[in-house]
Amino acid sequence: DTGVSQNPRHKITKRGQNVTFRCDPISEHNRLYWYRQTLGQGPEFLTYFQNEAQLEKSRLLSDRFSAERPKGSFSTLEIQRTEQGDSAMYLCASSLMGTDYEQYFGPGTRLTVT
Amino acid sequence: AQKVTQAQTEISVVEKEDVTLDCVYETRDTTYYLFWYKQPPSGELVFLIRRNSFDEQNEISGRYSWNFQKSTSSFNFTITASQVVDSAVYFCALSEAFGNEKLTFGTGTRLTIIP
């Protein structure tokens, strides 16, 4: 059983550019979460999906951020017009609702905005 | 609103010593879950334990043990006979029991085991 995978693992971009990250959850998991972690802090919730429906977005998720989960499988997180404050580790997690609710995390995508 | 406080930012102990990581939480929910995750230098969060609010029994798993006390809103984690491989950042987290189960994390405790 493969775990959660995220691509790319690292991304360096210039301020103002758009970036897109991908998350592939554990295959049978119906819930998918995005978190952001800055240096020295715990992960902060951004948004989550149940199947293909995006059910909640944090106030942290400005209108420059958009997430999708077409067909309820992989998910993408896009940041438009990146700012230096967007530099962080973006973590994806998945879980299977109705069982143990444990969230399994991927290795993260580290974004550096220069 | 939910909140998790890990007051210990960094702890260093000599190998084989016991160490306890503190976690205090706040929630208005009567039913909730508490978690501990480990984040080694590689960066990937590793699940250690989940506890629901109705189960106050302490749990032991090998060298790890957890003390859940609802009266003090604490969920502390003890490592017995610490090893160098235990060096990592440890996060305590909280989620509501019903709904989206999003995790609210503390700021973490960086544990360094000195050989």
Q: How would you describe this structure to a colleague?
A:
The complex is a heterodimer of chains A (114) and B (115). In chain A, 0% of the residues lie in helices and 49% in strands. Chain A contains no helices and eleven strands. In chain A, strands 2, 4, 5, 6, 9, 10 and 11 form a seven-stranded mixed sheet that branches. In chain A, a hairpin with a 6-residue loop joins β7 and β8 (75-79). Chain A starts with a strand and ends with a strand. The model of chain A has no long low-confidence stretch (mean pLDDT 93). Chain B contains no helices and twelve strands. Chain B has strands spanning 3-5, 10-14, 19-21, 24-26, 32-39, 46-52, 59-61, 64-69, 74-79, 88-96, 104-105, 109-114. In chain B, the strands form three sheets. In chain B, strands 2, 5, 6, 10, 11 and 12 form a six-stranded mixed sheet that branches. Chain B has a four-stranded antiparallel sheet with strand order 3-9-8-7, with no helix packed on it. In chain B, a hairpin with a 2-residue loop joins β7 and β8. The A-B interface holds A 31, 33, 35, 40-45, 48, 50, 55-56, 89, 91, 93, 95, 97, 100-108, 110 and B 4, 33, 37, 42-47, 50, 91, 93, 95, 100-108.
